[in-house]
Amino acid sequence: MDPASPPLDGTGKVWLKAMxxxxxxxxxxxxxxxxxxxxxxxWAALYRRLAAAPDDITEIDADLRARxxxxxxxxxxxxxxxxxxxxxxxxxxxxxxxGAIIEAVLIPGVVGDAGRATLCVSSQVGCxxxxxxxxxxxxxxxxxxxxxxxxxxxxxxRRLFPDTWISNVVFMGxxxxxxxxxxxxxxxxxxxxxxxxxxxxxxxxxxxxxLIPAIQRFFAESPARLAVSINATTDxxxxxxMPVNRKYPLEALLAALxxxxxxxxxxVTLEYVLLAxxxxxxADAERLAALVAGLPCKLNLIPFNPHPGSEFRRxxxxxxxxxxxxxxxxxxxxxxxxxxxDERMAACGQLGTPPAPPDAADRPRTPPRTxxxxxxxxx
Length: 379
Ligand code: SAH
Hints:
- Helix content is 28%, strand content 19%.
- With 379 residues, the chain is an alpha/beta fold.
- The chain is elongated, with a radius of gyration of 21 Å.
- The model has no long low-confidence stretch (mean pLDDT 93).
């Protein structure tokens, strides 16, 4: 970022939370005449004390504060609603300046991890990927979020729940993070800054549907970890449930992952949504094991979470356990993602506004259903 052209909101104000620390330091020096220590204090006020407005940043002198308030903003989203599910999962509905509602989900740790929590953040309003099993897909892509709007989800969650230690952040909410690559890379750098929010890079995970060129750039530039939604073991099924596969098919995706310059002991997480009778057979488990052989990875199985209008079903628990056991028999590190918050529509794939009625002309059209392979029959 050139300090002379910082990221601006719709009214021409600078998004303070869209800048990494070096960027904020350079900008504050150039635009405000701030000394490095003053800029460091500003950074700490934003992310250590979670200051809510320029006026509130008493760490810097009144003059500088006034100059800051005239051209920049601290906030990026407003809290619209907070829903709490019976298991303690909280869905935060947050409003953007232009009136869109995005969602972040706070998932408290369970036994052994109590007192810690994971925040699942959104990276776009809607999504362009059109995965057939995901509710967000039905919105189409409305727009990318700025890095400030991504970071604000974490700041608001910490401010709303000061007693919950948010130790992990996952980019698994609404949107395809690697389609909004610049903002997501900046956001991961801001999250992991040790003088700010201070997340460990090992505890920040960005999940993608498999955009190969973006994976390569992300890996080179972001401190965070990568997760990839594999979700099928043949191109026929993956083409159907994840249209992105037509551009970046399975073999090419796995080859690209194998070629990543992984750090020692690093693992890429591979997610696999289990859809009854679509991708959950014993043959699928064997093919999945063969596909990932030799790749340093952790497999994360996600039993499908239903939403209104979805044609898929969650497999029976025995089927899920059998799938896991088959992968473990190949010595693959495999876990099942327990469903959290689903009665509040806060679980994976349940975020977003259901499709609008056809007369809502100002929304993008619901993306079309893909064609189901002829041999596949859904109950
Ligand atoms: N666009 C990114 C991140 C968003 S979704 C991606 O594709 O990875 C995070 C995870 O939830 C992905 O693995 C996705 O496949 C999964 N998912 C989406 N809809 C789901 C649903 N209805 N039930 C269970 N998992 C779902």
